[in-house]
Amino acid sequence: MASPGVFVSWYTAPKDTSKSDLAREIFNETLTAFKTELSKDKTKQKWILDSRCCSLLDVLAFVAEARVQYEARKGDSNIRENLCELTEKIHHYGAIMDVMVQHHPEYTSLAWGAMKVLFVGVVNQQNLLSRLSTGLCQIADHLPRAELILDLYPTERVKHAIVAMYAHILRFLLRALRWYQESKLSHMVHAITRPAELRYDDLLEKISFLSRNITEWALVISHAEQRDLHGKVQQHLSAQNAMQLSIGQLTTLVLQIKESLVTESVLSASARIEVRQTLSEIQLSQFLAFLSANILLDATKAFQGAVFLRNRRRGKGPNTGRAFWLNAKIQFWNRCQSSSLVIIKGTHKQRFHVKDFCVDSVSILRKTQIPVIWALKAMDVQNSVAAENKVSTIVLLKHLITQAIQINSALHTDAALAPRLKAWLGASTEAEWLGILASALQGIPIVYIVIDIELLDHSLAELTESFLLPAAFLQVFSQMAQRGIKTVIKVALVSYGSPVFKQPMSNECQKLVVPVVGAGSSKKSARMPLRGGRFSNRGRGGARESLS
Questions:
Q1: pTM
Q2: If DSSP codes are grouped into helix, strand and coil, which group holds residue 401?
Q3: pLDDT tens, 350-405?
Q4: CA angle 380, 381, 387 (to 5 degrees)
Q5: How is 191-257 classified by DSSP, letter by letter?
Q6: How many angstroms separate the Cα of 8 from the Cα of each of 148, 225, 230, 237?
């Protein structure tokens, strides 16, 4: 098989030429061939120079214009049409008249011969008109086909064939143009002396032959192009097969490497896992010790102290008050499938009623093993050290972060604790510490946070201007939802006279406030805020039973 590209010279031009330049070159060569080979008539050559035609289409336009002028001169005459029809019929039956004339040839042959010459001239005139119209239509078909072939295959062979055809077409058009411009007398004479069969038929046949020759050349050239294309396809197929073979070898090599890695991983997995667990335990204890180094709050002691004070108050007598936990806002907060916030706002007179609610809620959540973290105020002044070290919002958040890391087993690895430690060391504002808290809670399906706002010292200003804890929690919920984090956080902010909630809040936060009023006609006990003493597990493992 021949190599690809061996036939490229048969269907590509030797040099790059524009379409307009190529058409101008073809027409110039056509004029040269016409002058040297087909016509020595000086008038025709002079007319070509004077008309300034740039293509055969320009010459064809001159012929069409001359034809229109001829039709206008001829006009529409019924008498002429009827005479032409009669002449054609008599000429058709001329053979019969020839037989009849032989009866007395000495009297009729001369007259019949003269009439027959007249009839032949009329018939030739009609045939000539028909032949000119047919020739112009054929030329109108040949020119676009030749132009397309020249655009596809602008080779020298195709150009020579087109020049030869164009020269004969030019010869026909000039003859037709001269005939349309002749006078009636010239038409009558030339109808007898230049019949269409002798003057135009051979020319039209030659044009048709050259057009077929161009088409056959295009077909042969297309075969050469297809052969080259077939060779290129075979080349690409061979290259593709070689590439597939290489890919197969690479795949085998990768599988061998993978098997080696798997074998090595199996052999050393136990050792690596043991080292990783040891590192995680050590790092977790060090991390928690580092976090709680500067935090004097102890969640366990605070909860124990709050339980002790609650039991002592109940020992003195029942603490009655309105069952504010039946409020629709608290019920919706508990049942909601997404992170939510509730703000319980009471008075200083109702502080024990609200504190007992917090203690009972944390106790029930711990008994049912539902994750919960808290910041409770067991006494007005827990001890002298706590009194001297006032609690700020950042200290409160650090206290909650420490509890979150303790209950979130997903963070008990070095890989999980490393970025949290980096964030811990770089955090400085309340918003940054709140972001660390949200990060520490990721991975827990549902978690409750109970915060006694009275734990905060009112004399310590926030580092971030206009920072409000309720609005900050709502913003964290929104950011977690946008990032697709599935952890559900239930936050309860409790206050009973703190000036923190006396600051102006947004309408969204004000809608979450549940007021706690004094005892009225209601006889429900505040000692057991949760019916049945438990939260039911429904949904994604979280507490879904309403507060009752």
A1: 0.47
A2: helix
A3: 888 888 889 999 999 999 999 999 998 876 544 434 444 578 888 888 888 888 88
A4: 135
A5: HHHS-HHHHTHHHHHHHHHHHHHHHHHHHHHHHHHHHHHHHHHHHHHHHHHHHHHHHHHHHHHHHHH
A6: 19, 7, 13, 21
